[in-house]
Structures are given as C-alpha cells and as structure tokens.
Structure prediction request, 405 residues.
Amino acid sequence: MLSASVEVICYKSKRLKDGTFPLMLRITKAGKRKYVALGVSVEERHWDFEKNKPKRNCPNKELIEKLIVAKETEYKETALELLANRREFTASSLAGKVEKKVNAKTVKEMYEKIMNDLSAGGSLGNYTIYRYSYNSLMKFTHNSLDIPFMDIDEEWLKRYEKWLRRTCKDTTISIHFRTLRSVFNKALEADLIREESYPFKKFRLSRFDVTTKKRAIGKEDILRIMSIDLTGADFYLQLSKDIFLFSYFGAGINFSDISLLKYSDIVDGRVHYIRKKTGKPISFPLLEDARAIIEKYSKERHISADYIFPILDRKVHKTEMQKRNRIHKVIGHVNKQLKVLGEMAGIEHLTTYVARHSYATVLKRAGVSVELISETLGHSDLSTTQIYLDSFENSQIDKAMENLK
Prediction:
C-alpha cells in the first residue's frame, strides 16, 4: 500500500495575472505536503472542486486529463519503486526524483518528450517551435535523429549550419540553433550528457545576425494602399488589404488576435480583447476606417458566425490546435497577397507585421510619448508594446490615435 498520496488540485490560493488558477500536483506523506506546478492553469468556473477534475466545458479538457493521469501515474510508480527497494523518501524528495527523471536517451527521444509535455500542457506556441526545429533536424539527418547527444559536436553543428544556409536566413537559422541548444540544456539538467560534451561552449549563436530591419511605412503609403480599388479582385487580396488596414487603425492588433475577434468584443464603440500572446487585456477606440471594415464583413456574414473576419469557423475549428493551424495557414495566404498589394502600391515587403510597426512609428513621429508607443515593434517579440499600451488610460490612447490619418 502506498505510504504517500498523490493528486492534482486547482490551487485557489494563487490567482495568476490572467485570472486563472494553476493546477498543482499535491504529494502528501507523513502529514507533510509538497506542491508541484503542472504548468497548466484553468478558470475557476471550469474546475469541478468536488470531483477534483476539469468540467465538461473546460478548454483543452482531454489534454488536461491526459496530463493529470500521466503525472499521477509517474509519481505513484516512482513511489512504489522506492518502497520496493526499501528506500525512504519524503514528499519533497519524491518530487525531486520524479521531476529530475528523464527517460530519453537520444536526441530524438528528448525532442519527443519535450513536445509531448508541451502539447499535454496546452503550450501550443512553444510546441510549434520545437516541432519546427525537430522537423528541420529530421530532414538534415535523413530521419536518423535517433542518436546520442555526444554525437553532436562543434563540427556537426557547422555542417548543420552550412545545410541550413542553402534555404534559410540568419534569423531562421538562429531559431533552429537556439531551440537545439535549449534541448541540450534540458539534457544537461537531466544528467543525460556531461559538461565536456556540451557543444555550445565553442559554437556561439552570436555568429548569426538577427537584427530586424525597420519595416514601417508612412501615412502617404497607407493612403496609397487605401486608394487601391479591388472591386472584382480575388477574395484573399481584398481580405488581405482589409486585415492590413484594420491592424493599422486598430492599435497595431496582430493577425492572431484579429482572427479571434468576435462581435461581442465591441462595446460602446471600443474593441476589448485579451492579447493571446501575453494574456493582457487591450482596449482601443474603433476608428471610422476600422468600423467600415467590420461593417463590410458583418453584411457578408451573419452575426451568429461569432468571429468578425472569415478566418475561423466555430463549427470546424474547435480545439486550440485547430485554430492555431488555421491561423498559420491563412496568414501565409494573406502575406502572399500583401506582397501583390505592395507591388500595386509601389511598396516593398508589405506584410501584416508592417501594419503593426507602422502604427507605432507613425504615432512616434507625431510626437506621441515613447512610453506610450515603444519602438520595440522592431523586435521579434512585440508583447512589450502591448503591455505599454495597457498601462495608460483609454483617454491617452484615444487622443494618440487621432494622429493615424
């Protein structure tokens, strides 16, 4: 019989910034408790506190239940193993042993473990990054990634870099190597490799140029784009133009958040939404140009469609992974069409990102406080700008956005 109890609970003593509560593994032995975070959080209304499990309407319910069963089983099996070997343990030492334990022996197994953990925890963004890196390595090794970590040395990394340079730029190469280095770091923490076998001491990632060129365009360019008549043009070309302009006139809202916007997010002439990347609440006034774009799609689609733009379908894209895959697919189409639109307007490298960057730059040039609109839109991580926006009163943002035309 187990001398320790293991169960997952919704930890109500700690409310996170986004209003959710973390799920914690509670290990109890000899009257002492140890809590271990599962890396997943839920809203209070989505957790059944009597049955101690997610309710039917809980987002990612199946994935969360799968993670809970896997974690509880892992802890119980480890406790039984210790008991069978007559080894004493406490709640804390049991947690330490399990969390440090990694069964992966090869690079392929380590990648798969990380991806499975991320998928089970609902961290789809990070999962996609590791999957992207994994697929690249599988192609490079001709599907022979089932190799020990010690096989990857500095010379191996140089060959991989040379192979990547045939099709990738420094920014993409850097992403692949930073992800691979992260896998090595996790293997190091799990004692799967020794310090002397760590190849990134000599192979420095600073060799890659990851500076992002400024891509903002001015008011004149925005007006040229607005003046292009696309009557009778391809649907995606029209949609791409509308998405670009809505982002510009919508406080730099990014494509993912545009895709998720619903009619219910518009209240009293303002758009209110939760930034998917950071979990921060954002609010901005619905300017006339943005309102006109919304009205265009509200006429074409019934309000019951929920989503404002014809990107997601609530009947088809139900899970987070389905939504993410659809958004990724559509943004690819949109950016291709924006390239065509850019050629029509005499503008190079027109993308959804340019709209966000232009929003910030136009306001900055108009004398808007740098604290309000940060130039970090020139970086790959744009979340800081949204955090800055969130920290000011709506009246300040409203006044600042008057400079957009």
Q: What stands out?
A: Residues 320-345 form the longest helix (26 residues). Confidence is low (pLDDT under 50) at residues 375-383, 385-393. The two ends are 72 Å apart (CA to CA). The first strand starts at residue 4 and ends at 10.
